[in-house]
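so my prof wants the structure for this chain in the tokens format not the other one, which i didnt know existed until like an hour ago. anyway here's the sequence
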Amino acid sequence: VQLQASGGGLVQAGGSLLLSCVASGEFHSISSTAWYRQAPGNERELVARIQRNGDTTVDASVKGRFFISRGNPKNTVYLQMNSLKPEDTAVYYCNMNGFLVGEGWSPGRNFNSWGQGTLVTVSS
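here's what i got, hopefully its the right format
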């Protein structure tokens, strides 16, 4: 399963961006999709996650500003980022895990895929 992330760019503090992540390839189902970010010199950290049942979790640092959602079809996931701050500057990665297609279209092996990352730069 391949993931394509897009939507990053340069924005002034207080602005907004919408990141998109599209999955391609054959798979049976998605268990969860998440957005991570990695700033220079820092470890990759979880920003937000959406579960198969629609439950979402977001990191405290972005709560109330960032919102994760699924598109239709459900192989697309968005991260709406509002009220951006310079400290949100990072490369943002989407991650998806689920099941490949098994015999008779039953759930097969688990997969865990990463997108290539999209750079978000917030200027002060």
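also thought this was worth mentioning. The radius of gyration is 15 Å.
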